[in-house]
Amino acid sequence: MCPQVGTSSHATNAWVNVFAPAITDRIKSAAPGAKLKKTDIVNLMSLCPFDTIAHEAPSPWCDLFTLEEWASYEYYGDLTDYYGNGYGQKLGRVQGVGYVNELLARLTGQPVQDETQTNHTLDDSPITFPLDRSFYADFSHDNQMISIYSALGLFLQPHDLDPTQPDKGRTWKDSQMVPFSGRMITEKLACDSSGIRQPGAYVRVLVNDAVQPLTFCTAHEDGLCALANFVESQSYARNNGEGDLALCFAKGKNRHEEMVPSVSSAWVALGWPK
């Protein structure tokens, strides 16, 4: 979708240089001849979740590392996605624009308006892309979900992640965004005159069951945002990524690649009651 997108390797390599050497030395001392490199540590740590899922039981690989080391591994994932497909990557958000425009079409019952990644053969047909359903389910990958979150404006960081020092107060945490079977649910709700809200249509977004604040569209404390405000807030998607898509196919090196640096199959669910 975006041949010129940069990578997160500069940030992730910087963080590996910080946290991995001590782990490498400790394991090498217990396993003479293993010839481990610090770059092997992330792969060894990845065996814990994958082996756990494969056998449906805690993997013994997990016990090789301390809680502090697992926190470092978590931050490695945060950097990977932030600088790979999120806000830290110039061409990260634009990869989620097509999906956001499809979401707006479903929320408003209007045809898809998009000139980025959508398949118009499918989206222009009421058979393959109906707009009159009460429940929709879409399936994707965590990398794509990160781009979608960023295009929507979710998990916005006040500043870029530091590749050498984790920010304990950061809002960007992969473990909360794209765990195994991660999911985003967008609800369209209707309020009548008997409630505490003004009558009309509202939108609420939940990521892994956590209600998102949606401050970008002046949502209430309960996460409810007026549908019209939500649509208005999505100007980046409605303007087709504001020219970023063209940079995906421009000749030459992505100017943001040198500036920067999950692992799971995940699904995105959209559903709302009538």
From TrEMBL:
<dbReference type="InterPro" id="IPR029033">
    <property type="entry name" value="His_PPase_superfam"/>
</dbReference>
<keyword id="KW-0378">Hydrolase</keyword>
<dbReference type="Pfam" id="PF00328">
    <property type="entry name" value="His_Phos_2"/>
</dbReference>
<protein>
    <submittedName>
        <fullName>Histidine phosphatase superfamily</fullName>
    </submittedName>
</protein>
<dbReference type="InterPro" id="IPR000560">
    <property type="entry name" value="His_Pase_clade-2"/>
</dbReference>
<dbReference type="GO" id="GO:0003993">
    <property type="term" value="F:acid phosphatase activity"/>
</dbReference>
<dbReference type="InterPro" id="IPR033379">
    <property type="entry name" value="Acid_Pase_AS"/>
</dbReference>
